[in-house]
Design a protein that fits this description.
The complex is a heterodimer of chains A (305) and B (555). By secondary structure, chain A is of the alpha/beta class. In chain A, 32% of the residues lie in helices and 30% in strands. Chain A has ten helices and 14 strands. In chain A, a hairpin with a 2-residue loop joins β9 and β10. Chain A is elongated, with a radius of gyration of 22 Å. The model of chain A is unreliable at 301-305 (pLDDT under 50). Chain B has twelve helices and 18 strands. In chain B, β10 (416-419) and β11 form a beta hairpin. Classes of the chains: A alpha/beta (305), B alpha+beta (555). Chains A and B meet through α2, β6 and α3 of A and α1 of B.
Chain lengths: 305, 555
């Protein structure tokens, strides 16, 4: 499907004096696996609550599956799956009762798929949800959000606090189903390693601001760690290109991250450091994330890369 | 409709035990109220236990409502962002409708059916049943919607309980403060004739329902809790304002006009100023100045037989030679001991006359002698002018009650009096060596949509052969009533649609038996009857009084 599943424009939410998210603008293409990254308190959960109509924006708007988030109704919600670490499931119900309650609410409920998932999750059907372990509760939430094959799956840090085995199992599962069903998945996390395997799009939030939002492949292509061996130990020039982040010199070695790498970058480096040996290293998503986070703490938070 | 039932069935599955308990409590309360078990059992301990059980059932019913409604509403909480249902395709309007249907079907209908069944088995007429049904519905609906609003504005049961308790405490404090301020400032110079008017209560109930539905609709639609709470507060203010200042008495009982045979011109007032009765005026708040009530005996002559007049307003003026004057009355009536006023009170004369002039026996200790307060003055004014004769004039406003025999029942169990929805049954007659005790079951309706003035009621043992009557002392044994929500206890305390009460009538009371009273023995009782006399309000009139040479202090 062509187009965007989510389109945010200037999305802002204020809680009293605190600006939780400020002017977020991004698009989540249909069929993509979009990761929302950011440290604790970055505004990831607030952004997701805004697009799920759990909160109303103070300013700006977000369209989800073509509908303004504040107007999301039963027909739109029937196409959206939402799992959050904070979501409270009805603990008094058994898993079977939960499924029986939800089944009539979704026209697209697929019983065979549900049974398939149920088998894969090894969920005890007759156990009350309140008595399930945290991992089992997440599985129950996932099951109840997947069984109707949602067009859009929104996952708000669903795997945090789970043991590695369960995480692995669920991540693999989400990857598998998303691929098979061509779902659009928006997942928020602070675990970059986890996301690296999942996402094909990534957005980075920090202190309520969107630092970047682009395809992972493009991101990985435009970030390079650069090492330059200079002939002397003179200090770094005062004016370096803005795209060079975290520049530092140790002895004769200058290190920085080029956030706008292109084949022409070599000329720009040679212009600043003529006749020097230059080595470029590709960067993992985790390295990019850490660089951006450190850069935001050491420079103006409004700087966009 | 299918969806609505789907949500409702889910809630019923969750709350089935509480709903079953609710039905059980409603049934038990109804059976206990209707059976009169408390009054019937002879074992005093069992009687006490049953009485406690009846009170506990009423309390349990209130508490269950306060538990079931928040659990029902907060199963899909409207406050917060973490509820599971918020991201599910559940139409909010249908959800609200399912919650209201649940309350209606499983909470209100059982209470309505139970009360109507109790009324029907207690001999209430179809007309009164039809009038009672909307009243019960209105009150139950207003109560449950109030709870639902509170539940919809709070995220969980703990917060619901805290906010509810805070609201209750605030209301009690406000009520007490207002009562203290008003009672301390009030000049009680007039007792209004209590003509019941249901219109403010009906308006308040309708407003509570409308405001609650409005707030619930707003909260379910928008989940803007602070705005919904503000709407609720505005609504509460409107309810208080309109119920207090409602201008159109569309449900007011008709106040009877003064009967034609009561001619105020023929009534003569005479004050016994030889002996006054002076007492300090009591006030809840420490007053800046101490005051004294000065009362005197007032003879009212010229009333037709079996009528009694009681002052309900006095506008006095007491003027002295130096030009100083007092023109205030604080308390309206003062009780004086029989040795100060040995004469027969007007009420007893009216009772005797209603019985055709029989000799009336009563225990002197319980004979009320009420003197009107002629004037209320400052202590300093009293000490300055107490002994000095002054020129007294006043306008007295009287209410008149007509005493009439309503029924004569033989002194045997099973004797009964039926008048529409009102029933009196003698359930037991215990004859003692020098007296008699009768147990009565009285049931009557008090319907909001048909307000009426209630007469004072007196029971007497009468022996027409001996030309004697003995005034019975009444001891309430048990009063049962079913309450719809909290309103029967707050808006109109002590009232309910069907009031069943058991009375013990004694004459004489053993520990106070006086030798001068005639023996009410077996032979007296064999010809005896139990007579009920009602004294309905018969109108009011005013009369001026002038007393030259009035001395406040006659000691």
């Amino acid at each position: 499907m062509i187009g965007n599943a989510i389109e945010a424009e200037g999305l802002t939410r204020r809680f009293g004096r605190k600006l939780a998210v400020s002017g977020l603008s991004f698009r989540v293409p249909h069929g993509s696996l979009f990761a929302l990254l950011g440290p604790n308190g970055a505004g990831k959960t607030t952004a997701i609550k805004l697009l799920m109509n759990l909160l109303e924006p103070t300013r700006g708007n977000v369209r989800v599956l073509g509908t303004d988030s504040t107007r999301l109704g039963p027909s739109e919600l029937a196409q959206i799956g939402y799992v959050s670490e904070n979501q409270r499931l009805p603990g008094w119900m058994t898993v079977a009762e939960l499924l029986a309650y939800l089944r009539p609410l979704y026209p697209s409920w697929n019983e065979a798929f549900c049974r398939n998932l149920l088998g894969g999750f090894s969920l005890p059907l007759n156990e009350k949800i309140k008595n399930l372990s945290r991992g089992m509760k997440v599985k129950a939430a996932l099951l109840s959000s997947l069984a109707y094959r949602p067009r859009l799956l929104v996952l708000d840090e669903p795997f945090s606090g789970l043991d590695p085995l369960v995480r692995e199992e669920l991540i693999r599962g989400v990857l598998e189903w998303a691929g098979e069903e061509s779902w659009t998945v928006l997942i928020s996390s602070q675990d970059v390693d986890e996301i690296e395997r999942l996402a094909d799009w990534v957005a980075f939030l920090d202190a309520g601001n969107l630092v970047l939002a682009e395809p992972v492949a493009e991101l990985e292509a435009r970030f390079r760690r650069v090492e330059v061996i200079t002939g002397d130990e003179a200090p770094l020039p005062a004016a370096l290109p803005a795209a060079w982040l975290q520049a530092a010199k140790a002895g004769r070695t200058v290190r920085f991250v080029d956030s706008r790498y292109s084949p022409a970058s070599g000329e720009a480096i040679a212009a600043v450091f003529p006749n020097c040996a230059v080595t470029l290293f590709p960067m993992s998503l985790r390295e990019v994330f850490l660089t951006l986070a450190r850069n935001r703490r050491s420079t103006s938070p409004s700087l966009e890369v | 409709m299918v969806r609505l039932w789907h949500y409702l069935a889910k809630d019923l599955r969750r709350l089935r035990l509480l709903v079953a308990l609710w039905a059980l409590v409603v049934a038990a309360e109804t059976i206990l109220a209707g059976s009169g078990a408390v009054a019937r059992v002879e074992d005093l301990r069992l009687q006490e236990a049953l009485q406690i059980l009846a009170s506990l059932l009423s309390l349990l019913k209130l508490m269950l409502a306060c538990v079931i409604v928040p659990l029902l509403i907060q199963e899909e909480p409207l406050v917060g962002t973490e509820a599971f249902w918020l991201t599910r395709p559940i139409p909010r309007g249908t959800l609200l409708l399912s919650k209201l249907s649940f309350v209606g079907a499983f909470m209100i209908v059982p209470a309505l059916v139970a009360e109507l069944a109790l009324m029907a088995t207690s001999g209430v007429t179809t007309r009164h049943l039809l009038l009672a049904a909307p009243e019960i519905l209105l009150k139950e609906l207003a109560w449950f919607l109030f709870l639902a609003v509170l539940a919809s504005l709070t995220p969980n049961f703990a917060r619901f309980a805290l906010v509810g308790a805070a609201l209750l405490a605030a209301l009690v404090l406000l009520g007490l403060t207002l009562a203290l301020v008003l009672s301390s400032e009030e000049v009680r110079a007039e007792i209004p004739v209590p003509v019941p008017d249901s219109s403010p209560v009906v308006v308040a109930l309708l407003l509570i329902i409308a405001v609650s539905l409005w707030v619930l609709g707003h909260q379910y639609r928008t989940r803007k809790t602070w705005r919904s709470a503000a709407l609720a507060l505005v609504g509460a203010f409107l309810v208080l304002l309109l119920s207090d200042y409602w201008p159109w008495p569309f449900l007011k009982a008709e106040e009877p006009r003064l009967e034609a045979r009561l001619d105020p011109q023929a009534v003569r007032l005479a004050a016994d100023i030889g002996k006054t009765w002076v007492s300090d005026m009591f006030s809840l708040r420490r007053k800046r100045r101490a005051q004294k009530n000065v009362a005197a005996r007032l003879r009212i002559q010229g009333l037709p037989a079996a009528y009694a007049a009681t002052p309900v307003a006095i506008r006095p003026r007491l003027e002295f030679a130096d030009g100083s004057a007092a023109q205030e009355v604080g308390d309206l009536l003062l009780s004086v001991p029989p040795d100060v006023d040995p004469s027969e009170p007007l009420e007893f004369s009216a009772l005797r006359q209603a019985l055709g002039g029989l000799r009336l026996h009563y225990d002197e200790r319980f004979r009320p002698s009420m003197w009107p307060v002629f004037v209320t003055v400052d202590d300093e004014f009293f000490s300055r002018h107490g002994k000095e004769p002054g020129e007294y004039s006043a306008d007295f406003v009287f209410r008149v009650d007509r005493y009439q025999v309503v029924c004569r029942l033989p002194l045997r169990p099973g004797a009964r009096y039926d008048n529409g929805s009102e029933h009196v049954v003698v359930t037991d007659v215990l004859r003692q060596s020098e007296g008699c005790t009768v147990i009565l079951r009285e049931s009557n309706v008090n319907v909001l949509l048909e307000p009426r003035m209630r007469p004072t009621t007196r029971y007497l043992f009468v022996n027409p052969g001996a030309n004697e009557a003995a005034l019975a002392r009444e001891f309430p044994l048990q009063a049962s009533a079913l309450h719809a929500g909290l309103w029967d206890m707050t808006m109109e305390p002590g009232t309910a649609r069907l009031m069943i009460r058991y009375l013990e009538l004694r004459f004489p009371e053993e520990r106070l038996a006086r030798k001068e009273l005639p023996p009410i023995n077996e032979s007296w009782l064999s010809q005896g009857q139990l007579v009920r006399i009602d004294a309905p309000y018969a109108g009011r009139f005013s009369k001026p009084l002038r007393v030259p040479g009035f001395r406040m202090d006659t000691r």
